[in-house]
Amino acid sequence: MKTTSVIHPLPTNVAREVKDYVMIAIGMILYGIGWTLFLLPQDITASGVPGIASIVYFATGLPVQYVYLGVNVALLIVAVWQLGWKFSIKTIWAVFTLSTFLAIIQEVTKDVNLLDDQPFMACVLGATFCGSGIGIAFSNNGSTGGTDIIAAVVHKYREITLGQVMRIMDLIIITSSYLVLHDWEKVVYGYVTLFISSFVLDQVVNSARQSVQFFIISDKYEEIGKHINQFPHRGVTVINASGFYTGREIRMLFVLAKKRESTIIFRLIKDIDPNAFVSQSAVIGVYGEGFDKIKVK
């Protein structure tokens, strides 16, 4: 009779999960400071759902937290339906935290006027805070929701990268602010904000687009391999090898993954076999399913 192996979930590390949620909250607070203290007073449009909320605020005066929360609730329903609950839970936490702290930050800083006559400096500082906040959230397995969700859904059904979808939507949102502000200078500041925040985001997550390779030697290689297949959903190659000194036959796992997934892989290896031998190294490029396409000029 054929038996089906069952992958049992790893024990949850409560302290690690709490740290993730705390860091996501800190990231959202930084984002809220950059958005409401530097960008909104200068009529500079942010990217993503905050950009939509900013445009509505410029046009109607409706507080940004209400529009931000409302749009994200609708998108989160789509995310749970199309991408599953696991993708959405920390996104829900990030959206709730940012929505809550937006009102608090606005109340605390209502009499604070910074850089009134220096819109470029406000743009730089606001973008730095926003990029840092999103980067911290991403580095701790979180998401700010909004265009991330739309990009993930589009990527699921179409051959287009997440970054391409997000850039297209962000450019459309920022450009559309002209319909309300009637000032191309503010639109340009919005483009600058998008560029700077994207750069800071990449620095915070430590070049997230880079890939890494792992060589893993463990007696529990089957369990480790199954969990890497399951999450972060990466392929695993089993290599037959032998120890030169001992002469013992061993199994070695070869894994290619995105650099941002390194922490996830290290965590599950430690949970399964703390004594595993692991080698990690950066690679210049990885091409194929789940990575970049081969491009030849």
Automatic annotation (TrEMBL):
Gene3D superfamilies: 3.30.70.120. Pfam families: DUF2179 (PF10035), YitT_membrane (PF02588). It comes from the Bacteria. The chain crosses the membrane at residues 21-40, 52-80, 87-106, 118-139. Residues 234-288 form the DUF2179 domain. It is a multi-pass membrane protein. This is YitT family protein.
